[in-house]
Amino acid sequence: MKKEHTVHFKIIHGTETKLLTGLIYLEENTQPTFQDYEACLKQCGHDVHIENPEQFIFRSNDPNNDYIIDVLEKYKKNDKDLHADHLAQSFVKRTPFL
């Protein structure tokens, strides 16, 4: 049985940074390898090679378009809805403490 594993990665191209996601299908009870990450990035259209296997950092193979991709293994998406929190705070009665 295969399970989906969402990959979060950061592309660093000069002074620009973008956060993107990809998807890897893994067998149950397995962790992704740098080969899995590399295949995912290539499927997303990035011709890359591993530069730092311990940190999962990849570099573009095109010398005319050099950029780095940092796979964010422990990425945690902010699950809070900031707009809803702000709206809820607007209904809180503000009474002075005595």
Short overview:
The chain is α+β, with helices and mostly antiparallel strands. The chain is 19% helix and 38% strand. The model has no long low-confidence stretch (mean pLDDT 85).
The N- and C-terminal alpha carbons lie at a distance of 61 Å
The beta-strand count equals 5
Unreliable stretches (pLDDT < 50, length at least 5) are none
Biggest β-sheet: strands ordered side by side in the sheet? 2-1-5-4-3
- Structural category is alpha+beta
Helix content: 10-25%
Beta-strand content: 35-45%
Q: Helix-strand pattern, N to C?
A: EEHEEEH
The mean pLDDT is 85
Question: If you compute it from the alpha carbons, what radius of gyration comes out, rounded to the nearest whole angstrom?
Answer: 20 Å
Overall spatial form: elongated
Biggest sheet, open or closed, and with what strands and sense?
5 strands, antiparallel
Please give the count of helices.
Answer: 2
Can you tell me about this structure?
This protein has 98 residues and is α+β, with helices and mostly antiparallel strands. The protein has two helices and five strands, in the order ββαβββα. It has helices spanning 34-43, 82-90; strands at 2-13, 16-27, 48-52, 57-60, 68-71. Strands 2-1-5-4-3 form a five-stranded antiparallel β-sheet, covered by helices on one side.
